[in-house]
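Appendix C reproduces, verbatim, an entry submitted by the partner laboratory led by Prof. M.T., so that reviewers can inspect both the input and the predicted structure.
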Amino acid sequence: MTQSFGLFEAYGVELEYMIVDRQDLSVRPIADRVLLTKDGEISSDLEDGVVTWSNELALHVIELKTTGPAPRLDGLGDAFHASALRVLQRLREHGACIMPSAIHPFMNPDQEFRKWPHDNAEIYACFDRIFDCRGHGWSNLQSVHLNLPFSGADEFGRLHAAIRLVLPIIPALAASSPYYAGRKARDLDARLRFYQGNSARIPEVAGRVIPEPIFTPDEYEERLLQPLYRAIAPHDPEGILQHEWLNARGAIARFDRDTIEIRVTDSQECPAADLAVTRIIAELVRGLVEERWSSYESQKAWAVEPLAAIFDQTVREAERALIEDTAYLQTLGLAGRGPTTGLDLWRALFERLASVLGSPKEQLPLATYAQDGTLASRLVRALGSAPRLDLMKETFRELVGCFESNRSFRP
């Protein structure tokens, strides 16, 4: 976003998907063959109407994002799906397709990872040199990013306070990564567990994933960004990575476009589900910013530790996590409840926010969630704790079909 927008005047959405072989579902590092202009040139950004295609670190991942700030989220699920079908047309020429969800369930990153070798290759090479990007947390993960704008220091503070409170429960809604390396993970959101540790060599990069309680741009620069740049400098003497996007917390300030980017949402099974999840997250953040259930002052008072504890639970157990912090529930407007599962919490939020979540069609993925739980739990229900590779491929082929027809996965 280059133009300045106030709170909830625009949205930026980014969806990451993996390219796989249509027959055996192995990763195919051919994103650059999709990102070709009419002149046959490789481009890191290729506009397709309101959606733009772009590259990521791994050559088997393609990102679809809003071309510019979207004034509303209505209809974006259909727009992303229509654009994805055009990506699929190009992939069919190479015997490939898109497989949704947040982690490839049997990829071997040590052997199969290929870095993007074109525009900005020096950035990816620097990350790889410092962190070794062959791990699952770098080369085998697909997420949804939501950019929410702010105008001025006060709006930044209010937005950051609200987002910090929403981050811990996002895995209870969006977990979709219960398998990796051909086996069931300990956590239902394995992507986020890997994400927590992928920059452990320099802890300042990701912190606790939940951002620190910082509520002005100046303080953010002084307390977070400058210490981060100092920590990376001995490993990055040329300053290649010393930009605000180096910050790998679950939500990061993007002062270059006056937004805060939420990064903890797993990719779902289809664009309709991705946008339904994105929309309720945005509306919950809006409700907190507008102080419907708790004051700005009370929201600012939350330290990292209690939020990180809830986040750790939902990463591990998704919607089955038991949230026992009644003060936290009260801050979200769920006063008077005892310990609440993630599923019951989100069901209550669906009911409360239903009038602002779009058309009945756009809310269908949330109905699937309310009945059957996260995509991670649905996959475990289909595959169990020790799935055979042939059954895993059969189930993920069904996910490919869900993506192509823009429907929810129901085992």
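The two ends are 39 Å apart (CA to CA). Additional entries are available on request from the coordinating office.
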